[in-house]
Design a protein that fits this description.
Structural class of chain B: alpha/beta
Protein name (chain B): Malonate decarboxylase alpha subunit
Strand order of the largest sheet of chain A: 1-2-3-4-5-6-7
Number of strands of chain A: 7
Pfam families (chain B): Mal_decarbox_Al
Oligomer: heterodimer
Shape of chain B: globular
Distance between the termini of chain B: 72 Å
Organism (chain B): Insolitispirillum peregrinum
Shape of chain A: globular
Helix content of chain B: 25-40%
Strand content of chain A: 5-15%
GO molecular function, one term (chain B): transferase activity
Largest sheet of chain B: 10 strands, mixed
Radius of gyration of chain B: 24 Å
Strand content of chain B: 15-25%
Helix content of chain A: 40-55%
Low-confidence stretches of chain B: none
Number of helices of chain A: 12
CATH topology of the largest domain in chain B: Glutaconate Coenzyme A-transferase
Number of strands of chain B: 20
Distance between the termini of chain A: 35 Å
CATH topology of one domain in chain A: 2-enoyl-CoA Hydratase, Chain A, domain 1
CATH superfamily of one domain in chain A: 2-enoyl-CoA Hydratase, Chain A, domain 1
InterPro entries (chain B): MadA, NagB/RpiA_transferase-like
Order of helices and strands of chain A: HEHEEHEHEHEHHHEHHHH
Largest sheet of chain A: 7 strands, mixed
Mean pLDDT of chain A: 94
Largest interface: A-B, 19 and 13 residues
CATH superfamily of the largest domain in chain B: Glutaconate Coenzyme A-transferase
Chain lengths: 292, 547
């Protein structure tokens, strides 16, 4: 039976994505580096503060990797959590691995330590760009139960590529936040089909925000991560301007669309309403060459 | 001379008052309130069809909106209180008396209205009891029912959710009552006729299709590994040993786990064709993998389930469907089947006491139990034998010199701690306090201890059939109650003795390796897996999707 990436814990994901037994954790739970803020609030802490960082090998290549644990506060970023991630990224500048893998699963900044968390996320962003600037690709894997939202949604889009499953979600404000601030008429967060159609992996792939859609299996994420090691991103000013122009056109092309399905139709996909039911392989075949 | 025909003449008078509102049997939706005001009389016994799935929601709204100066003191007789309008009729003074079976989500508000003296509850029934009383002393004078479609003559097509409609209409129409149906559409010809036109007086096309609640859909993603372990114990320790072939499953994740382990774990034990062949069951989506694997020969249903329509239509050998392909369900028939024709009921509960009595009643809620008390009780009128029934009866009577007879397997399946670390095992059920506060004649017990054959927890299976004294029974229950206060108070020596005698069996006694109890054993781990297993025929409601 295939191992579900969605259901696996952060540690199980790392073990399955990297080469067997290759992972060496930095600041493991035994180091007991926990959040000072949660302690003050008398809130349960995690010995790894909800993130695992370390180094290992992928297809024999040296990589650094981090995995957020959705089971602890939805993978939210606190001071220690963020510092571990920044430390890992800065280490990449010294050790120059083949790539850095971010197995994201996070609702964004941890509200209990909001200011420290916000600062941490901005430091993560700066560190990601520094690593990319040094020519080391940063690869995001997004397929966990809590998706990737808030500050981590921005971080994910700063990286070289996002590998996502249909179950994976990517966005800035999460569905409940949109409903709370804009009303249920704007976005019904309990309409799960609508939620996944809008922030789920398939739509994010069609919009070009995710690089590859994979099945919900740890083996599929590993295979896609190995393929991503060969990425040679174009970081020239021209490439950046092209991307900005493309993003600017998005509102012109799809501004009248009321639903993701309208966008899929506008992309020239026949019978777009069947897309949610397609397995990853069929989806990739049918939508090839038709992404925004 | 005595007039023997008062009911019919009263009926004619009511129809005459409404004559100006109809063309044939059809009444416009805008005239619905005028129609109800015309035919209803104060103090009428009224059945407002409330089901588990479909709801006569339009008629409920109209009834609740009537002028209480004109229509008041109605006596509502209906199986399920599902919608807020079902209680609005009492809040607004249109109705005052209630006989029912199940109030589910309205349980808290019902308790409040009872406490305020706004509702006078006759009794809380099981479904079969209430249906029985429709034909004895609770016959509706006016029934407000719900169907998918009607033709111009007034024939009704109920669609897959036939549910209570045939029972309600039969009781009303043949005692010269008045039957008013809300339908989603009026058509020239129906796919099939479920209720003949001459049993129906008025048909109203409702402005919106009636509401249907997907009550029996359980997302496999939420099944825990503890539940997988308990399902393994159920299959190996009960289903296999008693060769249970005819059964009903309660609603819940515990039993959904069993359904999802049939094609994997039960198959690996060589049980296909030996257990679980015939079911009285709503079409649970979680049963799809077992049907596809060839475990299930037949399923008769109380009502249907949203999203299962195409799958059911494509598996006519398994389900009861009409010539049009859609399901015909029937709550009364399926309840009778569950009571008399099934060898086992297995379901969850909230609280079990030391006598094995179980209840889902909690303080501040009057919820009723629906079908569980019928399914979960020994059918003492049963006479036909089956291996499971005979074995259970033998175990309960061995060495006691009693007349041999069989017994139904009634299994209560609970984790020792429920949500919020509430112990499932208690010295005294909350039902006692609820009975006191709500002025009930008896504590509301869902399943009486004398009917329970097995209690299954993650700690093991207690076989109550084999207990010979009240003390043994108590210790057998304490012995599977784990770390709850009730469990910790067990007599260790006696519990070990019960274990030696096979009255308590732990997973290891059953040869079950706990480390194998992972979600990987589930034949489907998500709703999408169920769609895959159905070959794309199952179309789950939006709220169960993550795609």
């Amino acid at each position: 039976m295939t191992q579900s990436y969605y259901e696996a814990s952060a540690r199980e994901r790392l073990a399955a994505v990297l080469d067997p037994s290759s992972f060496q954790e930095i600041l493991p739970p035994s180091a007991r580096v926990t959040s000072p803020h949660l302690r003050q609030l008398d809130t349960p802490a995690a010995f790894d503060d909800g993130i695992i960082v370390g180094e290992g090998r992928l297809d024999g290549q040296p990589v650094l990797a981090a995995a957020q644990e959705g089971g602890f506060m939805g993978g939210a970023v606190g001071e220690v959590h963020g510092a571990k991630l920044v430390g890992l990224l800065e280490r990449a500048l010294d050790t120059r691995p083949t790539a850095v893998l971010l197995l994201v699963e996070s609702g964004g900044v941890r509200l209990h330590e909001a200011n420290a968390g916000l600062i941490a996320v901005s430091e993560v962003m700066r560190a990601v760009l520094a690593v990319r600037g040094a020519g080391i690709p940063v690869i995001v894997l997004d397929g966990g139960q809590f998706g990737c939202f808030g500050g981590m949604g921005i971080v994910a889009r700063l990286c070289d590529t996002v590998i996502i499953s249909e179950e994976g979600r990517l966005g800035l404000s999460g569905p409940e936040v949109i409903e709370t601030t804009c009303g249920v008429e704007e976005f019904d967060s309990r309409d799960r089909a609508l939620v996944w159609r809008t922030v789920g992996g398939k739509h994010r792939t069609l919009l070009g925000e995710a690089g590859e859609l994979v099945a919900d299996a740890t083996a599929a994420f590993r295979a896609a991560a190995i393929r991503a090691l060969a990425l040679t991103p174009d970081l020239s000013l021209e490439a950046l301007e092209r991307e900005h122009a493309a993003l600017g056109q998005r509102i012109e092309r799809f501004g009248d669309c009321h639903d993701a399905v309208d966008i899929w139709r506008a992309l020239g996909i026949e019978a777009p309403e069947r897309l949610p039911l397609l397995e990853a392989a069929d989806f990739n075949t049918i939508t090839a060459g038709k992404r925004a | 001379m005595r007039d023997w025909n008062t009911q019919a003449r009263n009926r004619e008078a009511r129809l005459a008052r409404a004559a100006h509102l109809t063309q044939g049997k059809t009444v416009e939706a805008k005239d619905a309130a005028a129609l109800l005001s015309a035919v209803l009389e104060p103090g009428d016994r009224v059945c407002l069809e409330g089901n588990n799935q479909k709801q006569a929601d339009f008629l409920a709204k109209v009834l609740a909106g009537l002028d209480p100066a004109r229509v008041h003191d109605l006596h509502m007789v209906q199986s399920v209180l599902a919608l807020p309008e079902h209680l609005d009729v009492f809040d607004r003074g249109v109705a005052s008396r209630l006989d029912f079976s199940f109030s589910g989500p309205q349980g808290a508000r019902l308790a409040k209205l009872v406490a305020e003296g706004r509702i006078n509850i006759g009794a809380i029934h099981t479904y079969l009891e209430l249906f029985g009383r429709y034909f004895v002393d609770l016959t509706p004078r006016v029934s407000l029912v719900c169907a998918q479609a009607a033709d111009r003559a007034g024939n009704l097509y109920t669609g897959p959710n036939t549910e209570d409609t045939p029972t309600i209409v039969e009781a009303t129409a043949f005692k010269r009552g008045i039957v008013i149906a809300q339908v989603n559409q009026i058509v020239d010809s129906l796919p099939r006729v479920d209720i003949p036109a001459d049993w129906v007086d008025f048909v109203i096309q409702s402005p919106k299709p009636h509401y249907i609640e997907p009550l029996f859909t359980r997302d496999p993603a939420q099944i825990s590994e503890i539940q997988v372990l308990m399902a393994m114990m159920a299959i190996k320790g009960i289903y296999a040993e008693y060769e249970v072939n005819r059964l009903n499953h309660g609603i819940g994740f515990d039993t959904a786990a069993i359904e999802l382990l049939l094609p994997t774990y039960a198959e690996s034990l060589g049980l296909k064709g030996r257990i679980c062949r015939h079911w009285a069951l709503n079409p649970h989506p979680a049963l799809i993998p077992a049907i596809e694997a060839g475990f299930v020969e037949s399923v008769h249903s109380f009502g249907s389930e949203l999203g299962m329509e195409k799958y059911i239509e494509a598996r006519p050998d398994v389900f009861f469907t009409g010539p049009d392909g859609s399901m015909r369900s029937n709550r009364a028939m399926s309840q009778a089947a569950g009571h008399y024709a099934c060898d086992m009921f297995i379901g969850s509960t909230l609280q079990i006491d030391l006598g094995g009595n179980s209840s889902t009643a909690t303080l501040g809620r009057i919820a009723g139990f629906g079908g569980a008390p019928n399914m979960g009780s020994d059918a003492r009128g049963r006479r036909h034998a089956s291996p499971a029934w005979l074995k259970a009866g033998r175990e309960a009577r061995e060495g006691r010199g009693l007349m041999p007879r069989g017994q139904k397997l009634v299994v209560q399946m609970v984790e020792t701690f429920r949500e919020h670390m509430q112990p499932a095992f208690v010295e005294r059920l909350d039902a006692w306090e609820l009975a006191e506060s709500a002025g009930m004649d008896l504590p509301p017990v869902m399943i009486y201890g004398e009917d329970v054959s097995h209690i299954l927890t993650e700690e093991g299976i207690a076989n109550l059939l084999l207990c010979r004294t009240d003390e043994e029974r108590e210790q057998a229950i304490r012995g599977v109650a784990g770390y709850t206060p009730v469990g910790l108070a067990r007599d260790k020596r006696m519990v070990e003795n019960l274990r030696d005698r096979g009255i308590i069996r732990r997973p290891e006694d059953l040869g079950i390796d706990k480390s194998l109890a992972t979600r990987d054993l589930l034949a489907a781990r998500s709703v999408k897996d169920l769609v895959r297993a159905s070959g794309g025929l199952y179309d789950p409601p939006k709220r169960f999707r993550n795609w």
